[in-house]
Amino acid sequence: MKRQYAVVLCLISILALGCNKTKDSTPANIAHVQFLNGCVATGDVYVADSLKTLSGVRGLDYDTATGYLSLAAGAERMMVYINSFGNARPLQTASTTFYANNYYSVFAGGIITNPSFFVTDDDLSAPAQGMAKIRFVNLSADTLSETVIVGSNLLEVHVNTATCTPYHTVIAGKYVIKTYDPAKAGTTDSLLPHTYLADSIYTVALTGRGVDSLDYPRHLTLFLNDPNK
User: Fold this and answer.
1) pLDDT per position as a tens digit, 117-175
2) Residues forming a β-bridge with 195
3) pTM of the predicted model, to two decimals?
4) Ordered domains of the chain (ranges, CATH)
5) Torsions phi, psi for 125 (to 5 deg)
């Protein structure tokens, strides 16, 4: 009986050590930050934080996002750089406080001669069963106050330039997303039908400008907000 008792105690100790090891191996004081480059005429940019602790930094083409990267939590000055004749120069900066275990997006929009740059706190909590979450961000270089329609449902109104809506829940399914400024003719933009999956989270971004119909046309782009990618 004593031998069995000793074996049980040994197993409990091993399990406890295993649990402690797992806990200790999890990075502490880490926030998660993604970057989306919607700034017209930037070409390839790269991002950094003031303390240079951001992991996974990479070149970021126009109309692309990085996915969520690891960053030490705390007060930070986020910077977007652009290469000019081989010399890196800052494009924009934004200061904010990143809290451990939270998720954030850093958006660059507008045009290189008049860029916008802002940070959002991303609520990646799962939607209700059978639902998806969608938000809209207006990064266009045009001055627009957008109305956003998902299928036949009104998602948001008066979404100004350099503004991001909260996430809205919609029934999972296939939708066309349309945006337009009711006060300005010729500002309607549409995203082709896409199936929005249950338990998934999306960002729809408006980028470009109307006068650059060839090089940087105004259009909508869809991004999946998946913290595991």
Assistant:
1) 899 999 999 999 999 999 999 999 999 999 999 999 999 999 999 999 999 999 999 99
2) 174
3) 0.83
4) 27-122 (2.60.40), 127-229 (2.60.40.2890)
5) -65, 145
